[in-house]
Amino acid sequence: MVLEQVDDDGSGFTRPKLGLAFAARHAETLLVLLVLSVALIIGLATAADYGLSTDEFNTDDYGPKALAWYTSAFTDRSQFETVEEYLWMYGPWFQMLVAAVQSLELASPITVRHAMTFLFGLAGLAAVVPMARLTVGYWAGLTALILCLLTGFLYGNLFFAPIDVPFLFAMSWSTLLIVLMVRQEVPSWPLTLATGLATGLAIGTRTGGVITHAYLVGGMSLCALEALLRHGRAGYGQLRQIALHTLLVILVAWLTAIALWPWLQTGHPLMRFLEAYRHFATLDTSFEFQNWGQRTFTDKLPAWYIPGQLAARLPEGFLALLLLGMAAWIGAAGSWTRAALSALRRSGAVGLRPVAAELAGSRAVLVVSVAAFGPIGVLILQGSTLYDGVRHVLFVIPMLAIVAARGLMSLLPFLRRLPIVPVALGVAHAAVIVVTLVILHPLEYIAMNSLAGGVAGAYGRFDLDYWGMATPVALRRLEGRIDAEGRFAGDPPRVLVCLGWREQLAGVMFRRNWIAETDLQKADYLIATERWPCAKDTSAVLVDEVTRFGRPFAQIYANRRGLGE
Q1: Among the listed residues 121, 110, 113, the one whose alpha carbon sits nearest the alpha carbon of residue 96
Q2: Three-state secondary structure readout of 240-279
Q3: In which region does residue 469 sit, left (phi positive, over 0), alpha (psi from -120 to 50) or beta (all else)?
């Protein structure tokens, strides 16, 4: 810290004052801390506003039972026998952590779950700051962080995507640590150990975490190439060190994954892992939904599905900067290719030495590039079953934000000539997004950009509120209605919440002594959701609805004569 000494009152005593030089040098860091602090306060303050997403019902059941596996000295098998089928093929470390914190009774179990999910999600986004700074430059970290937080689809999911958000956390920190490793000629042992633990956490969350091995091996191979180019045969000792550190990361990763994932402990770990990987790669789930207004099936997706969804859900500014960043990196790759071909023609293989050194020196950038686009490419090539927007690739959005930050950096030489106009446009764009997210709350994740027509234009053309997040809003409105009418004073109402196979569990979201009904004919009230419009073709009477930008996302129906009056 730089301190300036200034006179206090002329008496000769001096006092320290935070220097302007320090603030200037660390402006990005200070702003990052400010943004993270504001996001943290808002997130924790609003965590109670969200209802349970459809996947949180089963993960809330999975966590305590997975924890019991360890506390019972590996004898309690309830996580394999009484949870939703195949749930054990996801690593339960986060669900166990949530269960442990819920047991402290600091707040309602739902609020604790959402607060924990948000904390880990925000921590995952924080990892993009040093990553962008190391691979793009000054101000890129702050840019990438803001782009992530302004993406409603990402921000909303940070509260209630019970597996996708922990996976984002593990993948972001794994990628950051791999970037730190490959930036060194030979990584330190503490960094190697930390990378092994982080990549093991990623694998132990979801099978897709194994892709971190590709990032690692590719980056460390370029480290080895640089060692050979610099030292020749004298670098063989360094090569052995690089190989040893790489193998140690992989070993620690698998030991960590096995320790945290009971499914791997109940058989041959590799065979168990491959079974889970094949299961999710070829998931036998087929249903119809709308994708850009076209009827689409989850197991017959067009190759452009993921790019198309991102094009609809990322904010316009994010998309524009992402395209610029991609163009900048593609241009750099093209220049390198031309230089390599030219050197090859002039001097043969010997002439490739300088361009090979340039490639090796760019390995950190290459790791981030692969982390941004590699998983999407793999999913497209293997024809994976996907649904619920692109929540399965939520973890690549922070990486795409780093590419977008590269796009902004490429514009800076032009923006500096007339800075006021672009700054004003950026602030106005961010303000519009913030206002939109405030209006959508707690449905921020359904935010759509103008290419998709906004939320109003995307309604019916996209799968929007697939988590049923309008349900808690409808429940609070129904509470107010019943309280005001004074009905059911001695006989609690029967309420059916349409959430697809979760109706019998929906009672945990009630704040009144109501009965969670599963039989439509016996229910006094129905709460229909966008994905499950259960009141369709019934005699139930619409009494209220939850709308955003003029479109209904949940409806409250009275199922008894007189209740709708």
Answers
A1: 113
A2: HHHHHHHHHHHHHHHHHHHHHCHHHHCCCHHHHHHHHHHH
A3: alpha
CA angle in degrees (0–180, nearest 5) for 33-38-42 = 150
Buried b or exposed e, range 167-198, using 16+ CB within 10 angstroms: bbbbbbbbbbbbbbbbbeebbeeebbbbbbbb
CA distance 99 to 216: 32
- Is the CB of residue 144 less than 8 Å from the CB of residue 408? no
Using CA atoms, how far residue 523 sits from 16, 175, 506, in Å, is: 69, 50, 13
Q: What are phi and psi of 476, to 5 degrees?
A: -65, -35
The model scores a pTM over 0.85: yes
The tokens 């956490």 sit on which residue? 201
- For the chain, the straight-line distance linking the first and the last C-alpha, in angstroms and rounded, comes to 68
**Beta 551-558 vs 541-548: how paired, if at all?**
antiparallel
Q: Name 352's Cβ contacts closer than 8 Å, sequence gap at least 6.
A: 340, 343, 344
CA distance 51 to 522: 24
**Is the CB of residue 448 less than 8 Å from the CB of residue 458?**
yes
Determine the Cα–Cα distance for residues 233 and 252; give it in Å rounded to an integer.
Answer: 30
Antiparallel, parallel or unpaired: β 3-7 and 14-18? antiparallel
Per-residue pLDDT of the chain (565 residues; tens, 9 = 90+): 333 344 444 444 445 455 656 665 689 999 999 999 999 999 999 999 999 998 999 999 999 999 999 999 999 999 999 999 999 999 999 999 999 999 999 999 999 999 999 999 999 999 999 999 999 999 999 999 999 999 999 999 999 999 999 999 999 999 999 999 999 989 999 999 999 999 999 999 999 999 999 999 999 999 999 999 988 887 789 999 999 999 999 999 999 999 999 999 999 999 999 999 999 888 888 889 999 999 999 989 999 999 999 999 999 999 999 999 999 999 999 999 998 888 888 888 777 888 999 999 999 999 999 999 999 999 999 988 899 999 999 999 999 999 999 999 999 888 888 888 888 999 999 999 999 999 999 999 999 999 999 999 999 999 999 999 999 999 999 999 998 888 887 789 999 999 988 899 999 999 999 999 999 989 999 999 999 999 988 889 999 999 999 999 999 999 875 565 5
Residue 182, SS3? Answer: helix
Query: Looking at this protein, which amino acid is placed at residue 107?
Result: A
Question: What DSSP line would sit under 288-350, residue for residue?
Answer: EEEETTEEEETTB--TTHHHHHHHHHS-HHHHHHHHHHHHHHHHHHHHHHHHHHHHHHHHGGG
Distance of CA 19 to the CA centre of its chain: 38
List the helix and strand counts (H, then E) for the chain: 23, 9
Count the Cβ atoms, other than its own, within 10 Å of residue 76: 16
